[in-house]
């Protein structure tokens, strides 16, 4: 068969003489068009029909990043808007991971009351916590061992210990006020002048000092110097979204985290060796001493590194929970002079002496202070330390129809591999349950028959279950879950209540408070810029060293800059090069700044404690 050459010859000549774009131009076109194409394909993919058994997916423009910016900026607002649009069950994409959210009391029960063999906490949190807490403890061991470790710690959290802690905490706060430079006006006893202090930093320091004095023992407390504080800070800076997504990256924060863990672990183990070698016969009455006597069910005693790592976990987790709660409580108290006055009058009523002074507090009396109790509970309602509690689905899990369903004849199924998320704070600020839900109003807890008191009763007096560390109220269906629920309910909640109560009492007795500025809003420590840059760095670094990747990018941009022919597009291309170079520089700078927490207000913890 013959071919019509009169048709093909003009085209072949055109193609032969056509001027193809240079390599730098092709690179620039790819850099611009590939992201745009991926966005278009991502939107089209979301418009395709999906299985009716899958929960609805929150719409997002950028693939892989998904809803990371909206969730990281304000998870409470994000969940609230998604709930209005999709209901109590929905899925969103977080940096390449599918997160299925179940909201409301039933949603909390679905996640927190689920079987640990199906919904596993360690599959979610281990990459974040293992480098900080250490090996063979918490999420670096089987769940059965974790439950035993919680039992070991709980053995030392007895009523008799709490009685002795009261005076220790009061002494630590008084000592701090008498010597810290922030309270210079107080130390001068000048009642006509006002001093000031940064709430989060100051109360975090008081929290860690009181925890060390009571739980950690005299050796640890006496070594709370600047060096120890720096080790703690380096470990604390390992609690970021970047460290959760990527366990090991060639960044300064990772190196400091690992070095701090090694030094702190050796610090504790040296104290253990010294105690065993001591011939004095004196035995400390603290958590370390208690752990030294404990045995697993198979008869094996705790090894030294396990004791050290449990103490690190106890220090880190407890400080996050209590310091956040105390900070928010004192901010609200300073913002409400009527509550502040009621708290002081309560102290006078219960502890006043004939000479006008105030006697010491006794442990049994703390729970008998209704104003203080209400202030703490209301703070925990509005500002729980954890806004998101996650588990990983190890198998397909049907969602109860009462929680959410696509239709009367069908149910949602959470697919294997999804991260399932509960957010108790959504129930705790739900206007359908709580009157003036977003207002800090301790008086709501005075009514024994009110919503608040009934929610707390449901939380404290629910079905008792022993998960391996003693009977606890399951309490997963309550709209008020300040310390979590189920097998991962906080074992230190009683200590935390004593610690928070005594710090507030000590401060209220000695000082009057007011806010210099407007009441601060919650700081979730991750803004839109951080999320995108974190992932840009981490994505590159997970496959190649960051320096090598950046050198390649800089080389390509340099070629585009120097070898672009003169013409109308030269300015545009060189401007694009400058913007790309600037982004690379910013990403490189963030590798050194990623470990720094913004501290505009008390943070909520990323880790379930």
TrEMBL record:
Gene3D superfamilies from the UniProt entry: Cytochrome P450
GO biological process, one term: methylation
Presence of keyword Iron: yes
Record-linked Pfam families: ATP_synt_H, p450
GO MF entries: heme binding; iron ion binding; methyltransferase activity; monooxygenase activity; oxidoreductase activity, acting on paired donors, with incorporation or reduction of molecular oxygen; proton-transporting ATPase activity, rotational mechanism
Keyword Transmembrane helix listed: yes
Top-level lineage group: Eukaryota
Transmembrane segment boundaries: 26-45, 531-564, 576-596
Residues binding heme: 490
Localization: Membrane
Keywords, alphabetical: Heme, Hydrogen ion transport, Ion transport, Iron, Membrane, Metal-binding, Methyltransferase, Monooxygenase, Oxidoreductase, Transferase, Transmembrane, Transmembrane helix, Transport
Major subcellular location class: membrane
Membrane topology designation: Multi-pass membrane protein
SUPFAM superfamilies per UniProt: Cytochrome P450
Cofactor needs: heme
CC terms in the record's Gene Ontology section: proton-transporting V-type ATPase, V0 domain
Family per record: Belongs to the V-ATPase e1/e2 subunit family.
Protein name (database record): Lanosterol 14-alpha demethylase
Species in which this protein is naturally found: Grifola frondosa (Maitake)
Organismal lineage: Eukaryota, Fungi, Dikarya, Basidiomycota, Agaricomycotina
């Amino acid at each position: 068969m013959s071919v019509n050459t009169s048709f093909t010859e003009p085209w072949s000549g055109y193609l032969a003489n056509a001027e193809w774009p240079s390599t730098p131009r092709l690179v620039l076109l790819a850099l611009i068009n590939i992201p745009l194409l991926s966005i278009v394909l991502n939107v089209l993919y979301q418009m395709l029909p999906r299985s009716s058994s899958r929960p609805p997916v929150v719409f997002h423009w950028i693939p892989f990043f998904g809803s990371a910016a909206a969730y990281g900026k304000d998870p409470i607002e994000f969940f609230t808007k998604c709930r209005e649009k999709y209901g109590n069950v929905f899925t969103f994409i977080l940096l390449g991971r599918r997160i299925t959210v179940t909201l409301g009391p039933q949603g909390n029960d679905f996640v927190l009351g689920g079987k640990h063999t199906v919904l596993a906490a360690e599959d979610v949190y281990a990459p974040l916590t293992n480098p900080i807490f250490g090996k063979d403890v918490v999420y670096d061991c089987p769940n059965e061992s974790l439950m035993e470790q919680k039992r070991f710690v709980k053995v030392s959290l007895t009523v008799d210990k709490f009685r002795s802690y009261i005076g220790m905490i009061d002494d630590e706060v008084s000592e701090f006020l008498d010597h810290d430079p922030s309270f210079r006006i107080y130390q001068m006893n000048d009642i006509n002048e006002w001093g000031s202090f940064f709430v989060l930093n100051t109360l975090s320091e008081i929290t860690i000092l009181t925890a060390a004095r009571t739980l950690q023992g005299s050796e640890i407390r006496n070594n709370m110097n600047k060096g120890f504080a720096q080790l703690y800070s380096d470990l604390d800076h390992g609690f970021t979204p970047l460290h959760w997504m990527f366990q090991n990256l060639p960044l300064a924060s990772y190196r400091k985290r690992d070095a701090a863990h090694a030094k702190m672990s050796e610090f504790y183990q040296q104290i253990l060796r010294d105690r065993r070698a001591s011939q004095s016969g004196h035995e400390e009455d603290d958590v370390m001493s208690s752990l030294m006597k404990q045995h697993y069910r198979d008869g094996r005693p705790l090894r030294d590194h396990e004791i050290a790592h449990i103490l690190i976990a106890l220090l880190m987790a407890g400080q996050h929970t209590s310091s956040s709660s105390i900070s928010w409580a004192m901010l609200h108290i300073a913002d409400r002079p009527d509550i502040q006055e009621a708290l002081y009058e309560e102290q006078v009523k219960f502890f006043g002496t004939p000479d006008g002074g105030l006697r010491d507090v006794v442990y049994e009396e703390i729970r008998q202070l209704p104003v203080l109790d209400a202030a703490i509970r209301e703070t925990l309602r509005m500002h729980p330390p954890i806004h998101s509690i996650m588990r990983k689905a190890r198998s397909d899990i049907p969602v109860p129809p009462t929680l959410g369903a696509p239709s009367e004849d069908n149910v949602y199924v959470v697919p294997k591999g999804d991260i399932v998320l509960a957010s108790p704070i959504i129930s705790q600020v739900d206007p359908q349950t709580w009157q003036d839900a977003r207002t800090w109003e301790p008086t709501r807890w005075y009514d024994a028959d009110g919503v608040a008191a009934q929610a707390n009763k449901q939380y404290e007096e629910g079905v008792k279950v022993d998960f391996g560390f003693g009977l606890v109220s399951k309490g997963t269906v309550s709209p008020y879950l300040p310390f979590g629920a189920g097998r991962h309910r906080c074992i230190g909640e009683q200590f935390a209540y004593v610690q928070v109560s005594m710090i507030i009492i000590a401060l209220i007795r000695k000082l009057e408070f007011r806010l210099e500025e407007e009441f601060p809003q919650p700081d979730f420590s991750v803004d839109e810029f951080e999320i995108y840059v974190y992932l840009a760095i981490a994505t590159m670094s997970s496959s190649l060293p960051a320096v090598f990747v950046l050198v390649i990018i800089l080389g390509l941009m340099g070629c585009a800059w120097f070898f672009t022919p003169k013409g109308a597009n030269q300015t545009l291309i060189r401007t694009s090069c400058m913007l790309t170079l600037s982004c690379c520089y910013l990403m490189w700078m963030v590798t050194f700044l990623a470990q720094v927490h913004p501290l505009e207000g008390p943070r909520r913890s990323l880790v379930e404690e």
